[in-house]
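Minimal example, chain plus beta-D-glucopyranose.
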Amino acid sequence: MAGGLIGKGTANGKQYPGKLTFRVFVTCMVAAFGGLIFGYDLGISGGVTSMDPFLKKFFPDVYAKEMNMKPSDNQYCRFDSQILTLFTSSLYLAALVASLCASSITRIFGRRLTMLSGGILFLAGAGFNAFAQKVWMLIVGRMLLGFGIGCANQSVPIYVSEVAPYKYRGALNMMFQLAITIGIFVANVLNYFFAKMKNGEGWHYSLGFAAVPAVMIIIGAIFLPDSPSSLIERGKDEKAKQELIKIRGTSDVDEEFKDLVEASQSSMAVKHPWATLLKRHYRPQLVMAIAIPFFQQLTGMNVITFYAPVLFRTIGFGSNASLMSSMITGGFNALATFVSIFTVDKVGRRKLFLEGGAQMFICQIVITAAIASKFGVDGNPGMLPIWYAFFVVGFICIYVMGFAWSWGPLGWLVPSEIFPLEVRSAAQSINVSVNMIFTFAIAQVFTSMLCHMKFGLFIFFACFVLVMSGFIYKFLPETKGVPIEEMSVVWQNHSYWKKFVKSASEEANAKVDNSC
Ligand code: BGC
């Protein structure tokens, strides 16, 4: 899924010939549409659920509660409705199911067909949502979008990693996260403008606009060829070689082609990647495949991504100001991602993780104090001064930037570079699934948590940020500049993981055992 760019790197210092051809460039554009689709969905629902005409039509109870709200009422519970959050969260449950199925479709029918199915499902979902008349149509629409995202996110990053020249893989991985943040930002901007439509029909456009990236990905998938690795996997070696010549822009591809065939054979020799992954010497990879996406979601970032407008309304902003503020936080999210793109290969992963964690922690404490001081436990703030709004939005922006150059992109990059080929597909599926489960959970329980935990909600996430920073400090070795094939060395040299990971010769023996 997002960012699962996986590849060979410089195998034993090998340099394959080939340049960044137009064909590869077009492929990356399609990948960007995959990221945009995901980001657009992450960013759109919060704004739509804060539009009064939308609430009135689909969630009249929430709307009535909202209308009858007096300043002296408990503001924390203003949007507490399980059916309202289901509108947001259902998508991620569907994406989870789809990404599990999509891993087989990707293997058997190729990456392209999976992308095409993703685009079609997504288009259908956008249509259902844009013309929805009843809540069930909204939920069905969201589920179709989720199936689409599951397919696209499983296939697009793998496809890109397979066609991109190895030199550009790291950067392309981060481009995918950048596309996600741009998708979120575009959704925030469109919500802001569509909410202003006098006839109250803006939500149709917000939801229907998702059709645009869907059409792009469909067109892309129709015209793009399948990746050489996928063709080899399906026994079409000659076609694979021709394709490799085209995408590399040179006929000097023999060495890369030979390596692709070998890689495919050795990964096919591992009959049970799931069982293999459970073996003791893959423990660091298994732990990271679960812990990294889990912690990424427990930063609390998606409370902002999904519910910034709801949150801003809860703390006293008007509908317009709420949408404007989430547009600002969305903009900071996209811009700050560049910091990661430009620094990740220089300062390394660990420093970014730790700095981002410290920044998020401090902001969460400040935001908690700000909300606690005005809203207390009864959720009744009285009149809020204007400086207060600037103060809260400012700290939310600093928090978002901390995430955008640490756990956002690295939450996808690090897992994708630490999985060895023989367990890559299984580990990547776990990574994606854990991410989707917790994205779903946060989306589903946020309004209820806010209602019950009040300002303590931010302390809850702050505690997790502390734990995850400790985890990175103690357990994650630096992977900057380490070729993927040599990654096992970082575990062998690590003070804790070395007892799990065998030396290279022992590992080679283990692989032989596996293939028997
Ligand atoms: C995360 C999403 C999040 C987004 C925010 C991604 O890396 O997986 O859950 O909404 O970043 O920019």
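Residues 2, 42, 177, 180-181, 184, 296, 301-302, 305, 333, 408, 411-412, 435, 439 surround beta-D-glucopyranose (CB under 6 Å). The domain at 23-224+270-510 is CATH 1.20.1250.20 (Growth Hormone; Chain: A;).
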